[in-house]
Amino acid sequence: MKFYDFVDKAPAIGKLAIVEGTERVLADRALELLLDRLLPPEVRDLNYERFGPDDVGDAARVREAVQAMPFLAERRVVAVTDTQALRAQPRRDLWAAAQTVPDGNTLILLDLLPPRAAKPEPFGAMAGRAALRVDTTANEETRARFVEETLERLGAKADARAIDELARSAADLAAVRNDLEKLALAGKKVTLADLQRESLVVEDPKAYKYASALVEGRIAQALGIAQELFSSDPRGAAMPLLSALATECGFLWELARPNGELPARARWRERALRPIAHRVGERRARVAYERAVGGVEAIVTGRAGNDPDDHRALVERISVELSGMSRPQR
Fold it and tell me: What is the model's pTM?
């Protein structure tokens, strides 16, 4: 069933629940709602176990967890997240474990694949009617309701044209939420003009997406965006790319400092950047910032040369140098 049908109708939950589709924000919320409906808070710590894809190389751990007896509760709940990241054999092993859930317990699989995907075959398609399936794929109606609920949570308002623009956007709902959080800081009604001026969803600034992808460790995606910009503007691409990277690394450095705090205009980025800043640490964040600024200066002063190929090489070199900074320090 569609996500909001699950929210509104509160269907019965049996031995297996599968959260599928493509929207991470809705999947996380579906998991929260499943837990709220299955386990009271006072018994949750003793009767809930969660696994990620790196934890289920041996599906026997999941099998053991789902077959354990509840403790002072009516059921035990086990969740396995991001199962779409599993290779073929671990997926088969996990599916075999899913067939062993005893009556009274519940296994939740977050398998963020379109329900009709061909490879790998979604768990929801394999289960059919034997599982409660929650589809997080968002159509325009779903997106509009999500926008309205987010505005209500933020205590903000938006005009109908702005809501319609976001509902028709192709951006994922996490980006929509981030835009609304940013625009709500102004404390006034969000208009279509505000959205067109400030929104990443509407304007889609490639340089910013390059910088955020690189800081978050998605090097292949970052280099792909850079390549796209250089293909369309060989001479003008390097400066916005490195400037955006310097800004993002500056935010990271600020959050890595004791009591660091982002300026109001950037506070909407804190949720994504603070965990990274914690892993990177103040010293590495400062080095990354200085490297990005140094690249900007090299272009401005001519030290990087005047050939577009030199500028492209500089961006690629800095990208590769900084690509591993989000990994935990040893």
Answer: 0.64
